[in-house]
Automatic annotation (TrEMBL):
Record keywords, A-Z: Membrane, Transmembrane, Transmembrane helix
UniProt subcellular location: Membrane
Record keyword Ribonucleoprotein present: no
Protein name (record): Mpv17-like protein 2
Length: 143
């Protein structure tokens, strides 16, 4: 059991976080969470790579590029899902199926292209190299 002061503290924290997931700060939350999720994914992947090759050094610049790429996708995804919710209203299975289908046919390839081209540009490669990498890895990515 928590003492009374601990419970009060947890309640205050709960209510101070609420605005980040509603209304006016939601765009900021979605933008930062996109960057944080890609960064965490990269940290996990590099940890896995370092276990396979013990001499490797963690590349924090790569993690930073992942953060930038994720943050750049955040606003697009924020407005995409707002649009999807306006076009396909409701929670019925048929409506959810339509949302998932449209999301997979439109947003997934678009964001895949955004990711591959964006990462290549952040790594100092050209737009055409990014496009070639996207085309070469598209089906593996899409699966």
């Amino acid at each position: 059991m928590l003492p009374r002061a601990g419970k009060d503290f947890l309640v205050r924290i709960r209510f101070s976080w609420r605005p980040l997931f509603q209304g006016r700060y939601l765009l900021l939350t979605n933008t930062l969470s996109g960057g944080i999720m890609l960064s965490l994914g990269d940290i996990l992947q590099q940890t896995r790579e370092n276990r396979r090759e013990p001499g490797r050094v963690r590349d924090w610049r790569r993690t930073g590029r992942m953060f930038v790429a994720g943050c750049s996708m955040g606003p697009l995804l924020h407005y995409w899902y707002l649009w999807l919710d306006r076009v396909y209203v409701g929670r019925a299975l048929k409506t959810l199926s339509k949302k998932v289908l449209v999301d997979q046919l439109v947003a997934s390839p678009t964001l895949g292209m955004w990711y591959f081209i964006g990462m290549d540009l952040l790594e100092g490669r050209s737009l055409s190299e990014g496009w070639a990498e996207f085309r070469g890895k598209f089906w593996e990515f899409y699966k």
